[in-house]
């Protein structure tokens, strides 16, 4: 006889609470999910949950194989049978069935009948070229990434904070003397996939859809100087993000008002047909003082989570070299780790940052402290999607 005793009271309480939540309200969406998850956890047999957690390592390789076979794209025009998928991919039916059991089990593709598969909104996203690049990239580097427990054991479980030395976490896991970004530059096909993966938009929405870009630029200033840069996207990759932000400006700008900066090796990959004539593309190392002076906004999107604290302070201090006191703003877009109940995506990305760059996702309190060390003060915080937002800062007023 099973010794399983469901935590029925907990499940009932979570369900009762769920009934009080307006499922159409985006504000309470997170609450609804957490109560659904609490219900499942309370009802699931503890041993089953233990084994299920343990076997999560099988999920990514199945997804990656499905991506290689372009399975996410195929049921776009209607359900496909196992036989049809086998004919389209050239894979053996018995193998496909095994992979698809794992994939339908996490809800990415819907099993609409025996051996029949229907697309879902998530499979459409995973079938995009940007995610295909992400699967290729993480497929190549995943095994190294997974070797971090050995490093943590060897370093007596210290929080990694060294992104450069030959004994750092990345260097140990990847058997290299390079730091992550120089390793990437030395591996152009992985770098290409990395840059392509950066163009993914969470839920197909660019962050600037939920952030009042123009209002935040214009508020608190009488005149915007048209002879000064308006926005500098520091570490802006191939410029996909800046082009999306540009669409938020109500009137055409002058050449030189929008600037994209990234490493020389990244700027060089931007082909002529990918360049926007209104954007200036400048190779720049953010460990050197900012050379574009007096812009209204310096945007650092998904940058600081790539670096340990001291490096972040150095990047921020370099931005301040360009900032004009009382006029320039710094926008840090990225994860803002809540003090409790962290979203799963953010806590998992935090581990990726730890291995790649001895870096981390940080709380607002932690980021505020790093800004303070660089002579900046927080002037606004906007959460634009669960776990992610913009922290705005300006130069501290001189005493
Ligand atoms: C995680 S990506 C973020 C890209 C982009 N901001 C976005 O959100 O899609 C980090 C970026 O920092 C750039 N980067 C790394 N080291 C840099 C450096 N020393 N100077 C300038 N850019 C750098 C990388 O090339 C990459 O484009």
What do you see in this structure?
The chain has three domains: 56-126, Arc Repressor Mutant, subunit A; 129-197, no CATH class; 202-395, Vaccinia Virus protein VP39 (Rossmann fold, 3-Layer(aba) Sandwich), CATH 3.40.50. It has 18 helices and ten strands. The protein has 399 residues and is of the alpha/beta class. The chain has helices spanning 8-19, 29-43, 46-54, 59-68, 82-89, 93-105, 121-126, 129-145, 148-154, 169-174, 180-185, 188-197, 213-218, 240-246, 264-267, 309-320, 344-357, 364-373; strands spanning 80-81, 110-113, 116-118, 231-234, 258-262, 279-283, 297-301, 329-335, 376-385, 388-395. Helices cover 43% and strands 13% of the residues. The mean pLDDT is 92. Strand 7 (297-301), helix 16 (309-320) and strand 8 (329-335) form a beta-alpha-beta unit. A seven-stranded mixed beta sheet has the order 6-5-4-7-8-10-9, sandwiched between helices. The chain has a three-stranded antiparallel beta sheet with strand order 1-3-2. The chain binds S-adenosylmethionine (SAM). S-adenosylmethionine is lined by residues 181, 198, 235-237, 241, 262-263, 266, 284-287, 301-303, 306. S-adenosylmethionine (SAM) is lined by residues 181, 198, 235-237, 241, 262-263, 266, 284-287, 301-303, 306.
């Amino acid at each position: 006889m099973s010794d399983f005793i469901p935590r029925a009271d907990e499940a009932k309480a979570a369900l009762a609470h769920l009934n009080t939540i307006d499922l159409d309200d985006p504000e309470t969406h997170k609450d609804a999910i957490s109560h659904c998850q609490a219900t499942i956890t309370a009802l699931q047999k503890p041993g089953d949950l233990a084994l299920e957690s343990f076997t999560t390592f099988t999920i990514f390789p199945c997804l990656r194989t499905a991506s290689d076979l372009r399975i996410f794209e195929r049921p776009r025009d209607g359900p496909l049978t196992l036989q049809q998928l086998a004919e389209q991919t050239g894979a053996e039916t018995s193998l496909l069935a095994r992979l698809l059991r794992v994939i339908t089990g996490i809800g990415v593709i819907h099993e609409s009948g025996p051996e029949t598969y229907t697309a879902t909104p998530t499979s459409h996203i995973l079938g995009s070229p940007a995610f295909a690049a992400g699967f290729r990239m993480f497929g190549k580097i995943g095994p190294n990434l997974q070797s971090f427990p050995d490093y943590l054991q060897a370093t007596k479980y210290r929080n990694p904070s060294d992104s450069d030395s030959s004994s750092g976490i990345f260097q140990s896991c990847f058997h290299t003397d390079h730091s992550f970004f120089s390793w990437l530059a030395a591996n152009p096909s992985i770098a290409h996939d990395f840059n392509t993966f950066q163009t993914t938009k969470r839920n197909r929405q660019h962050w600037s859809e939920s952030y009042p870009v123009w209002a935040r630029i214009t508020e608190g200033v009488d005149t915007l100087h048209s002879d000064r840069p308006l926005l500098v996207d520091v570490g802006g990759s191939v410029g996909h993000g800046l082009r999306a932000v540009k669409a938020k400006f109500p009137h055409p700008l002058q050449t030189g008002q929008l600037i994209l900066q990234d490493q020389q090796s990244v700027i060089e990959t931007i082909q002529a047909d990918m360049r926007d004539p209104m954007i200036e593309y400048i190779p720049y190392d953010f460990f050197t003082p900012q050379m574009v002076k007096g812009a209204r906004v310096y945007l650092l999107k998904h940058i600081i989570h790539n670096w340990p604290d001291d490096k972040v302070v150095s990047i921020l201090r370099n931005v301040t070299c360009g900032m004009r006191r009382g006029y320039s703003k710094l926008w840090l877009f990225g994860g803002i780790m809540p003090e409790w109940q962290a979203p799963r995506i953010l806590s998992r990305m935090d581990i990726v940052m730890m291995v790649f760059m001895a870096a981390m996702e940080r709380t607002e309190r932690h980021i505020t402290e790093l800004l303070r060390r660089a002579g900046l003060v927080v002037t606004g915080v906007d959460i634009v999607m669960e776990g992610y937002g913009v922290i705005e800062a300006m130069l501290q007023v001189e005493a």
